[in-house]
Structures are given as C-alpha cells and as structure tokens.
Amino acid sequence: MWRLVLSALSLAFxxxxxxxxxxxxxxxxxxLAWLLGPPLVMAAGLxxxxxxxxxxxxxxxxxxxxxxLMAKGGLGDVQRLYVLQHALINGAIGTVxxxxxxxxxxxxxxxxxxxxxxxxxxxxxxxxxxxxxxAWVAYFFGVVLLSLLLYGFANWAVWSAFANFVTPLLAGAxxxxxxxxxxxxxxxxxxxxxxxxxxxxxxPGGAVSQR
Length: 211
What we know:
With 211 residues, the chain is mainly α. It is built from eight helices and no strands. It has a domain at 83-202. Helices cover 77% and strands 0% of the residues. Keywords: Membrane, Transmembrane, Transmembrane helix. The chain crosses the membrane at residues 31-49, 56-75, 81-101, 135-153, 159-177. This is Transmembrane protein.
C-alpha cells in the first residue's frame, strides 16, 4: 500500500511541476527536460527489464537527443512539441490496447487477469475483460481528441492543466471505478487488490503474487 501512496505522491509532484514550468517557462530547456526526461528514463528501465533491446536503444537515443537540446538551450517555442508528445503517448498506448482486440489476440486486460489468476479464469471474465480493454481504448483515444480540441480552442494554461492533472486523474478514476463496478456487476468474481493488477501489468513474466 505504501508503494501506491509513494507513487501517487511522486506523480502528483511531477504533474504540478510540469504544469508550473509549462505555464511559466514553457520555452525553458528545464521544462523540456522535466516533461520528457522521466518518461524516457522509465521507458528505458522497462525495456531493459523486459530485454526489449530495440526499445532500449530508441529510449537511449531519445535521451541523448534531449541532452543535446538541453545543451543548445532548448527549442524556442515548444508548445506544439508538448501537445504532440501528449497525443503520441496516449495514442500509442491506445493503439497497443486496440491491437490486442483483433481476432486471434488476447485482449490486454484479459492477459493481465490471466497473470493475476495463474492462467486460469472464470468463463464470465473473458467477455468482461474484453469490454474493459475496449473501455481503455476509448479512454486513450478520447484523451487525444480532447487534448487537440483544447489546444485548438482553449488557452495554454487550460491545456496544460488537462495534460498534467486531468489526464492522470481520469485514468485513476477509470481504474478505481472499474474495480468497484466489477464486483457490483459480478459479485461472484474473487476479490483482487488494485495493486496486484497494476503489478501484473507492469511486471514481465507469468503469474504474480496476490499479496
């Protein structure tokens, strides 16, 4: 539990400082580093843990490019870069989730549930976890659409607040809301802590402990 609290506090601090920099110093190289650096480091760490060498090489190259831009003093007007980064990340994750819905593939949330339950799962969970995967696809592409609309029709501070605060809060609301709805619709499903599902999604390999 303490890990979830620490992660939530870290994300809140990251979001607050990213928003402050993007509103007050969007052209600063430090704003660029703070916005892009941590996600690239996390991507590199996950790629190394899962032995995805191409992804690791791409992440390392992107970090090197970011260091070069920092040394040159940034990019000047980088608002479009921030919007593009936000849209590409959410669009890419949504595309990965959507790809698992194709015929012959295992939906993303189904595969996570199978890891949690050691490869065995109640029959009713297969259509349910497919619908949850579809909900996450709708979330990611909905975020992309709202991001572009706000950039086009609202001021920069509103877009920054949406990208840094509203987006992760919506993701958290969907995660917790689905968890509560699951046991209301299917009280027969065994109870699994949210932290276990998050760990199953994050960690490579087979079944995960439910402790």
